[in-house]
Amino acid sequence: AQTVTQSQPEMSVQEAETVTLSCTYDTSESNYYLFWYKQPPSRQMILVIRQEAYKQQNATENRFSVNFQKAAKSFSLKISDSQLGDTAMYFCALSPSGNTPLVFGKGTRLSVIA
Amino acid sequence: DGGITQSPKYLFRKEGQNVTLSCEQNLNHDAMYWYRQDPGQGLRLIYYSQIVNDFQKGDIAEGYSVSREKKESFPLTVTSAQKNPTAFYLCASSQGPTYNEQFFGPGTRLTVL
Questions:
Q1: Low-confidence ranges of chain B (pLDDT < 50)
Q2: How many of the other CB atoms lie within 10 Å of CB of B53?
Q3: Residues of B with Cβ-Cβ distance to A34 under 8 angstroms
Q4: More exposed terminus of chain B, fewer Cβ within 10 Å: N or C?
Q5: Nearest Cβ partner of B100 from A9, A42, A95?
Q6: In whole angstroms, how far apart are CA A51 and each of A32, A39, B51, B96?
Q7: Cα–Cα dist B90/B74, whole Å
Q8: What count of CB pairs under 8 Å joins A to B?
Q9: Chain A: nearest CA to B11, how far in angstroms?
């Protein structure tokens, strides 16, 4: 069975500071994908960043970056220069390759404080 | 613009009634999915379809039914057998076997009165 665990139900950060959201997962697949999705108050799910497991280099998208530790099965998200618009629920998700459903963590609610 | 549409945005139903949630995509994606979201539960998979005229049960399929007669459409019916249907429902689609990003619709909030 594949599982995703987000151990921080809620977090807060001051505007312009850096915050890291944790995610651990379990899978027996050798190749898989990992994602971070953002769900703002509008509830529209937005892809923040993706990581392919066979790529050792950590993915980066502007202010968002990941720390992917394959052996430890850890996939944390770092948000630099936090902005008020980053306030949202953040979901970590896992999928093996192919058109297979994502397995989601329960989410971390992030509040950015002015 | 390409994307996924869900309708209606808000839906109310009386106990004992079936209701159908619409999901349409114009991304030419093969696979489509339905998730249910409850507070503190994350997203849970109801049904998914990897190809037209085929679909599989997810983790919480009881009380739900789907059809996939067209590539672009994947409607979800919430039947009277679903004991606690009040929730937020999200539809998603994905493109192909080597690139598994899922694109999501805006969701439907279903409330049972």
A1: none
A2: 10
A3: none
A4: N
A5: A95
A6: 9, 19, 25, 16
A7: 12
A8: 52
A9: 16
Specify whether the CB–CB gap between B69 and B75 falls below 8 A. Answer: no
Query: Closest Cα partner for B42 from A85, A39, A48?
Result: A39
Contact call for B42 and A91, based on CB within 8 A: yes
Omega cis (within 30) before A41: no
pLDDT in tens, A18-68: 999 999 999 988 889 999 999 999 999 999 999 988 888 999 999 999 999
The span from the CA of A64 to the CA of A44, in Å, is 19
Set of chain A residues whose Cβ sits within 8 Å of the Cβ of B33: 101-102
What tokens were used for B78? 């919430």
Please state, for a pLDDT cut of 70, what percent of chain B lies above it: 95
Sign of CA dihedral A79, A82, A88, A89: positive
Please state, in angstroms and rounded to a whole number, the distance separating the CA atoms of residues B20 and B22. Answer: 6
